[in-house]
Each structure stands twice: as structure tokens, then as C-alpha cells.
Prior knowledge:
The structure holds two protein chains of two kinds.
Chain A: H1 2-36, H2 42-45, H3 55-69, H4 72-95, H5 108-140, H6 144-174, H7 176-191, H8 194-205, H9 209-234, H10 237-245, H11 250-261, H12 263-283, H13 292-301, H14 305-331, H15 343-346, H16 348-366, H17 382-394, H18 396-423, H19 426-440, H20 443-458, H21 462-492, H22 494-509, H23 516-523, H24 527-551, H25 555-563, H26 568-601, H27 610-617, H28 623-655
Helix pairs in contact in A: 1-19, 3-28, 4-6, 4-9, 5-14, 5-16, 6-7, 6-9, 6-12, 7-28, 8-9, 8-28, 9-12, 10-11, 12-14, 13-14, 14-17, 18-21, 19-20, 20-28, 21-22, 21-24, 21-26, 22-24, 23-24, 24-26, 25-26, 26-28, 27-28
Chain B: E1 6-15, H1 19-25, H2 32-37, E2 41-51, E3 56-60, H3 67-74, E4 82-87, E5 90-91, H4 97-106, E6 108-111, H5 123-133, H6 138-151, H7 167-179, E7 185-189, H8 197-214, E8 217-222, H9 225-231, E9 234-239, E10 242-247, H10 249-254, H11 259-265, H12 270-273, H13 276-279, E11 291-292, H14 301-306, E12 311-316, E13 319-325, H15 326-333
Parallel strand pairs in B: 3-8, 3-9, 6-7, 7-8, 11-12
Antiparallel strand pairs in B: 1-2, 1-4, 4-5, 9-10, 12-13
Amino acid sequence: MADLTTNSASSVVLMTRIKAGYGLIVFAIGLTLLQYAGALPTWLHRLPDAAVPPFADWLNAIFNFVKDDLGLLTLTRFLTEGLEVLLDTTANLLFGKRRWPNLGPIPWSAIAATAAVVGYYLGGWRIAALAGGTFVWTALIGQWDIAMQTMSVLVVAAPLAFAIGLGLGILAWKSPGFDAVLRPILSVLQTLPFFTYLLPAVIFFKVGPTAGAVATIVYAIPPMILMTTLGLQKVSPEIVEAGKMSGCTRWQMLRHVYIPAARTEILVGVNQVIMLCLAMVVLTAFIGMPGLGAKLLAMMGSFKIGRSFEIGVTIVLLAVTLDRMSKAWVVKLPEHFERGTSFWVRHRFLLLALAAFVGFTLIAQVVPILSEVGRKQSWSQGKEIDNLIKGFLAIEAVQAVTGSIRYVLNIWVLNPFREFLLSIPMPAFVMLIAGAAVLIAGRREAWLAAAFFGLVALTGWWDRSIITLYSVLSAVFIAILLGVPIGVIAARKEKRAKAVLLVCDTAQTFPSFIYLIPAIMLFGITATSVVMSILIFSMVPLVRYTIEGLRNVPAEMTEAAEMSGATRMQKLVNVQLPLALPTMAVGFNQAIMFAFFMVIIAAFIGTQDLGQELQRTLAGTDLGKNFVLGICVTLMALTFDMVIMKWAEEKKRRLGLG
Amino acid sequence: MDRPVISAKNVWKVFGRDPKGYLKTMPDGRSFEDIRADGYIAGVRDVSVDVARGEMLVIMGLSGSGKSTLVRCFSRLHEITSGTIEVDGEVIGDLSEKELIDLRRSKMGMVFQSFGLLPHRTVLDNIAFPLEMRGQDRHTRRARALEVIKLVGLEGREDYFPRELSGGQQQRVGIARSLAIEPDIWFLDEPFSALDPLIRRDMQDEFLRLQGILGKTIVFITHDFDEALRLADRIAIMKDGAVEQCDTPDQIVMNPATEYVARFIEDVDRARVIHAGALARAGQLGEGAPVDSRATVKQLAHQLVNDQRAIIPVTENGKAIGAMSRQDALDILLKVG
């Protein structure tokens, strides 16, 4: 009886939800039609400038107060000095910057050999070859110095991000109050466009490597915190009790029980920290950080596709190497040695690495090519690749294909869609979003969605926000059209699925910047390139989660469908896709998040959206404006995140997929 | 004679939003279901039980009956909601964190169902862990750990990691770790439940052998009634957080206190459980050759069938304690009544 009443109560709630949702949407359509008929007053179409509160000025006032009056700048300048010492040290060792300890640069051959030994220790000869090969390639192609400029920041930023993330993660795990405060901040940080990390870093930490390192650290911390908390929460209660019964004090519990038992999650966090650091270090090119990113930016800017391609390969190789090595570390378990194993055997890898390092350092003194590959000696084929690509693009068939893709996309899809979105009156747009949110997720999400988009409208950057959203939506839409079928086809066969997943995994480790290269290569510096780069980037999670969703459908269910005489198509439509949908939604969500990230980077190609404005702020000191623009992106991204994830969770719960 | 090692009086453990406040205002006689309807879960309901020095108390119950919760109250891994628990005359609820840690470091050992081994430490380091925590130096740690390793028969496996061992071996590590500090009180929380039936049997024998050597005060948890009968001095049968009956195996089998206990013993072969000692009536003497009080009816089957006497004397350690009726014993053997 009690169950019955709650059931009917919940269905009443659902009914009102549906009514409210459709009501909002119908009302929004009405408003839009009025606008088309020219009957809508302009102040209802767009917020008049006079009504826009000067958020940027307010924020600047706050920033200035914190910066100067509270003395934050003094503190950060102090930190800058410490950081500078670290960065100068690594810079000296890796590429011979004239600073203390004046020992470097370490010969490239020594680093490559050591990397190979470490790779062998972690994951056998495959990773050894990958690690050694990456560094050999980097040296031979003549990019050693810029690669080491990037690495010198990475090797400082990653450990610091790790330590800070671990510390905050432990605090968040210990104190639920702190966790409650931290979580929303983390989700904002994770959706904040990276340009918004860069400007504060420059203002507070001096242009150059220090600012680059700080932005990188801040950017890489959130996943470390989340993984740490997750790992600590997952430690089995029996291990905890065993620790307590062994008479551990609190500190002993943390040091000897919790952290070692959470090793796997913490190391996964390390992997993420390294990958995010690499992605961000490359992007710090936008604030003038020298290194691979800066070179790539310069080469792409002057359309030197050949060199861009080579730098892209280096970045990709570095990313894959770092990813594989840290992942191998995650699964590496301690081994025991039989009693009586000699010191030499026990420590053979350490000794081998030392020998390789010292050996090659010494040999390099005699054989200069092993120490440094000169400009003339490098094997760079930039010009040749340039010509090759230009030749390829000049082929009529290719030109016809790229030309028609561009034409169709621009004239038939992108431009009309954009004009349509821009034509919708602002209040109607907010209502549409809220209506969709109430239908898909629930009332709470709808209120928040309306509040978030309302805030975006209040900032006065409505048109640019809508253009940003338009790029994201159109790219993700095309990505779905392509990605979901690819996923479905790949999921059919075990082997194919594994291969495609491996490609996705690898592609996901590439710093986002890389995705611009093929887009620019094929479509030049045009709006199509923007959509294309977002498209490629966001297709990765879509394909991946489609495959995972389909493959995780319990075998009994597909077997039951088969025994009921379902054809392959019927099985797919009636059993597999419905059950895979919640997982696919997670992929869809990630695709949108990736798209929001990428659309900002694409500002580099020349867009008219928030990214463009953001990039412009980097040249100045207008922190307030920078922040307001960043928050616009975050608010839109968070709306999608919130609505989709809520839907996926709800759906999962109802399907009993836990 | 001695005061009990563990003495629990009216212990309650309630889970929920405000257990203490709830328990204060709760009317008497609320059942487990009533309490659940109020939004609380009663893990332990008004339990009073004593464990004597050197005794093995087995707490038996199905999953969710509160047996694990109760033992965690004894070791204060859980804070109790009301009542008192004394260990060696000290109320453990009043101990400071430091005193509690000292108590665990010196007096208590615990073995867990899924072993609770630290995956990153070798067998030796796992076993030496409690010693390391109380700050013993590496050398004495190692010496003591090797001693217990020998005791549980894991020689040669010192440098293995837990994942390299079988389940039975892992539990040997768990047992060795709990014995490393030479505890007075030994808690075992379903130590053999995660093992295969054959290995479980071996481990029970092993456990009895160890207890024969060590003579600890033991609280042993199990959901396996046969295991309980096999090992226990006394059994406490729990249901919905409360103790239904706490008595010797013989008494439980002969005189089940409640319906629930009676259902449990339905399928038990009573002849294997009941000892001559339990059947012996003091004051009666009988004639002829006596039987030993520790012999089960089953073990005496042959003699009972062939013997002509109506009353057979029973001795414990050579001293007469009474006599049992042959008919009573035969009834048990033939499952009459």
C-alpha cells in the first residue's frame, strides 16, 4: 500500500515535469516566432548593454584588493623565486641554460639510454624500445633543445602537482566539510578553459617558465585529488581494521596502511597528472613559454606543415611514452627474490641505468654527435614533407573532396545553424535549455541550467557564448553521426573492438593541440578546420564509450535475445543499445567537455567566439574580463555535464546496472 | 575463580543518524523490525556475555545477525551505543586513544575473514607489522616473526607477497600476524569461511593444535554450526543482534532455549556432540568400568549397545563425577526423542 502511494506520487511528479518541460519549450518557440515576425521588443531579444552589470570591473576590484592590499602578490613573487631555482636547475641539466649547477646539458644519448633501461624495468622490451626510440627520434630530428625546454618544466610541475594533489586529496578524505567545499571548486576548475589558467599565472608568477609551470600545476591537480580520495575510500575495511588491531597510531595508519593500500589509484592519479602536465605545458606556448608548443604554434601560424608535423610526432611520441611508462608502473607489482640473491642481481636495473647514464655521458665527451645533434646534422625533412603535403593537396580529386566538404559544411550546415541559434531571443534560449533539462534530468537541474545560462546572458557576452556553443554542438553532432556507427561496428568483434579501443586510448593521451595539425593540413586556416579539429578530438570518447557500453551488456541478455529469435539488428536496437545508453551518455558528455576545451584552442585559427576574446586578454592584464569569459565557458559546460550525468545515473539505476 | 577476561553488560550497538539519542528515548521491548521501521539498524541488542580466561567462546549466527559487530565492539573497532564492556577489568569505552592503542599492541590479536593482509608487504613484513607499529627494532621483529612463521608452518615463504600465496596460506599469515605480539585475547572473525571445505577442515585441525599449545582466551566467529560444535567450549547463538542462547554445545543440543535454536540443531547428529560428561548425573554411582566424560555418545556406541548395565559410571580425569543412564545415551544414539 505504501509503495503504491509513493509510486503514484512519483508518477505525478513525472507528469508535472513533462508538462513543465514542454510548456517551457512551446513558450520559447512562441517567443522566437514573435521575434521572426518582428513583434518582439529588442530588449527581449538581447539584454540591453545598460542592463549588463560590470562583472569584470567588480572582479578586477576584488583581484586588485587580494593582489595588492592583502599582499598575495608578495607571496606569489616569493614562491616564484623558489620555483625559478628549481626550473633553472632542470633547465641547466636538460638543455644547458647558464644557471646553477652549471653541469648541463646532459648528452641526449645518456638520457635516451637511461629511459630505455627504466622502460625495460617497468614494462619489458616494448616500452624500452618506445622510450629509447622517442628520445633518439627527438635528438635526430633536431628538436632536442625545444623538447627539453618542455621537459624541464614538466619534471618540476608534475611532482609538485602530485604532492599538492595528494595532500589535498588526503585532507578531503579526512574532512567531509573540506570535501564539500572542494568538490564544486574542482568541477569548475576542470571545465575552466585553459586560457583562464594562463593569465592569472602570468600576472602572479612572472612571464615565462614560472608562469607556465604554475598554470600547469594548477591544471593537473584536480584529478590527483579525486583519485587520491577515491583510492583512500576504497581501501578494504578489513585492511583498515587489521591496521587498527595492529595498534597503529593515526599517522601510522595513513603512512603504512592507507597510502600503500591505495597505491593503484594514486598511481593512476600520477599517470593523469603527467598527461595533463604535458598537455598544458604545450599550451603554455600561448603565454610565450618556449618549447615544443611554442615552436608548433609558430610553425602552424606560418603554415609550415612539414615542421608542424614533425613536432607533432615528437609530442605524440613523448605523450605515448610517458603514458605507457606510468601505466606500466601502475600494474607493476613488487617481486620477491629468493633468499641469497646477490646485491648485484637485486639491484640490477638500478645499476644498469647508472651504467648506461655514466657510460653514454663519458662516450659523448669523445663522440660529439652523441652529445648534441647540430642544426645541419639533423634529419629534419620539413621542406620535403611540406612539398609532399602540398602536392597531395594540389591533386584535383583531393581538392575536390576537401572543397566540397568545406562547401557543404559551411553553406548547408554550419552557417544556417549558427544564424538560427543567434536568431533565438535570449530568454527563449534560456527557456529551451531549462525545458530540455527538466525533461532529461529533473527540476533541480532545470533551475540550475536556467541560472547558469541566465548568468551567461548577464555577463553581456551572449553572442560570443552562443557562437562557442554552436561550434561545440555542431562538431559533437557530426561526431555522433560518425562515432556511434564506428563504435557499433567495432564492438561486434572482440579483436576489432580491442584494436579500436587501443587507438582511442592512445589518441586520448595526445595533447589536444595536436588535433589542430590534421585539420589545418586539410582545410587550411578556416572555420571548417575549427569544427574538424573539435570533431576529431571529441570523437575519441564517443567511440570508446560506445564500444564499452555495448560490450558491457551482460551476456545473458544478448543470449536471451538470440534465443528469442532476434536478428542482429533487432538485438542491437532492442537489447544492446538501450542497455548501453547510460554508458554511451558518459561518452557523449565527455565529447562535449572535450569540445568545449578544443573550441577555445581553436581560437588560434581565428574564431569569433569566447576563445578569441580570451586569447586577446592574454596580452593584457584584464584579469576580470579573462575570468568572466572563462566562467561563461564553464557555466555552459557545467550545464551539459550536470544534465547528462544526472540522466545517465538515473537511467543506470532504473536498469539496475549499478 | 578468576574474573572474566571479557565481560559485556547490556551492550547495544545501533546504527543510524543519532543512535545515542534514539536509544535513550526508545521504549523497552522494541524488536529488530520495530527499530528498523524507526530508521535505525540494531547491530547488537542488549547483549551480556562473559568470556573466562582460557575459554573458547564461539559466536554463531547467520549473516547479518550481528556477530561480527559484537566482536568489533569487544575490540572497540566499533564504539558501542550503550552498556559497558570490560577487558581485564578495564572499561574499554573509557580508554583514551593512546591507552586503546597500547591495549591492542599488547593484549589483542585479530584474524579476518578475507585476511586483511597488506598487499605491498612480504609475508615476513606483514607478520612483523604489529611489532613494527609498537616500535620494536628490526632484529627482534624479525626473530619473533620467524618464530611465528614456523609455528604456522610457513617456513620458506617469508619473502613472498600475499598475492603469491593460496587462500589457506594467506590465512596462516593472518593468524601468524595476530599471534606476533603474543596476545592474551584472540579474536577470529570467520577465519576459515573464505576457504575451500577441505582446506577449512585442515585449518580447523591446525587451529586446535595451536590452541592446544597456546591456550589463549578466544572469541571465534562463524556462521557454520558444525565448525562451532567442533571448536567451542561455549557457543553463543545470535539472531537479529541478540544472543538467543549461550551455553556448551551439549546443552544447546540437548536443551535448545528457543524455537530458533531448535531449528538450527534439527539436522545435527547429536550423538557426535553430546559427551558422556553432559549425561552424567551427580550423586549416582553405578558399577563396573567407567567411561571418560570427554567421550561422545557416538564414540561409545559400541559399548552402549553391548553393555548390560542400566547405569554406567562417568569419570573426569580419573575422578568419578556421576553416572549416566544407558537408555538416555542409546536414545540419543538412535535419534529417539
